[in-house]
Amino acid sequence: MADINLKMLIIPLFSLAASCATSESTHAIEAADFCEVHNPERRMKYWQDGDAESTELYYQKLASDIKAIIKTEGFRNIFKEQLNIPPSEYKKEYSNDYVYYKKKISELLDEEWDCEYLKHHYVLEFVEE
Q1: Contact 75/27 with Cβ under 8 angstroms?
Q2: Please, where are the H alpha helices in the chain?
Q3: How buried is residue 64: exposed, middle or buried, by Cβ count under 10 Å (0-12/13-18/19+)?
Q4: CB distance 53 to 64 below 8 Å
Q5: pLDDT at residue 75 tops 80
Q6: pLDDT digits (tens, 9 = 90+) for 25-58
Q7: d(CA 42, CA 20)
Q8: pLDDT score at 72
Q9: Domain extents for the chain?
């Protein structure tokens, strides 16, 4: 009987641990993919002429690609939170989107995260912080 009770306690703990590990690895994959969609080589396919139409096509494709790679609620919340911050407060706390994403994704992963592609995508004039 004690053996059955022990199993009833251990099985949920293993499931919880596996779920956390899967979520962490999924977040790491999402973070890497989020970085990669900002790779300038991808941009060149859409931004060849640098005109308004090319730029609009690029941003539509970027939004579509980001939507496709974000699978977890944790990562989705980063974008939801960003939309809920009033612009004046956002500018006070985050000098640009690169700073916001770096901070929030690092918090989600529980480790320092950075993406060079993101830095050059969202920062017009980058100043080391």
Answers
A1: yes
A2: 2-36, 40-44, 52-69, 73-84, 87-93, 97-109, 116-122
A3: exposed
A4: no
A5: yes
A6: 889 999 999 999 988 887 776 666 666 677 788 7
A7: 32
A8: 92
A9: 26-122
Q: Each residue of 27-47: b (16+ CB within 10 Å) or e?
A: beebbebbbebbeeebbeebe
Q: Would you say residue 122 has pLDDT above 50?
A: yes
106, amino acid identity: S
- The answer, yes or no, to whether residue 98 has pLDDT greater than 70, is yes
Full-prediction pTM beyond 0.85? no
Q: Phi, psi (5° rounding) for residue 19?
A: -65, -45
Spatial separation of the C-alpha atoms in residues 34 and 62, rounded to whole Å: 10
